[in-house]
Amino acid sequence: MGGTRTAAELDQEAAVRRALEDFYRDGRPPWDSGVTPPELVALTEGPDALAPGQALELGCGTGTNAVHLARHGWRVAAVDLVERAVRQAREKAAAAGADVTVLCGDATRLDEVGVPGPYDLFFDLSCYCGIPPHRRDAYAAGLTKRAAPGARLLMFGYGPEAFDDPISGVTADELIARFAGWRLADVTPGTNPVPTFWFTLHRAATA
Ligand SMILES: C[S@@+](CC[C@H](N)C(=O)[O-])C[C@H]1O[C@@H](n2cnc3c(N)ncnc32)[C@H](O)[C@@H]1O
User: Fold this and answer.
1) Which of 17, 102, 105, 174 has its CA 20 to 30 A from that of 136?
2) What is the pLDDT of residues 171-196, one digit of tens each?
3) CA dist., res. 92 & res. 157, Å (int)
């Protein structure tokens, strides 16, 4: 999937990967709060909780939210690009006694990762918004291929204004354009000082 990549695209992917690896090498990355956001808690607890099924987390970092899902009855696979993050996520799951399959791989190349699905829930906490634009169609196609009828994608992302670089960030219009066969059901602004959003997308209930 994705065809021939240009040298510039390869450079961009390598630069993003290096930057992410540096964050994990330097210790605890700034985003690693260790706290599950209320937007995900609302899907796992209380009156609006979903019936647990199969979940896939994209860009799971050190696994806080994958563990949360598993503790709430979900069968969870979680993927991250950075080996060091994956090791920490596995340790966190083991320490919590949570049954989570944590895999090192690229969320835009899921065919290479071994996550066949189908999944009822996809969760992405600021992974997609950092993915280079030329890989984003492949990300959407990978989820669409693995989505159970009526599947849900809960995604948190930074708006493009939040970044100095021209490749990062996500908008509602972009998701509508890229996720064919999905419906953007909700966009709720985040509470960060820069523009952030919680996006909820639903896959059609019939294929
Ligand atoms: C901003 S961090 C958020 C991590 C985690 N979701 C959290 O909130 O703690 C983005 C994560 O996505 C991962 N990531 C970025 N691009 C990825 C890709 N193409 N495939 C898989 N993981 C990716 C990074 O390694 C990093 O762990």
Assistant:
1) 102
2) 999 999 999 999 999 999 999 999 99
3) 24
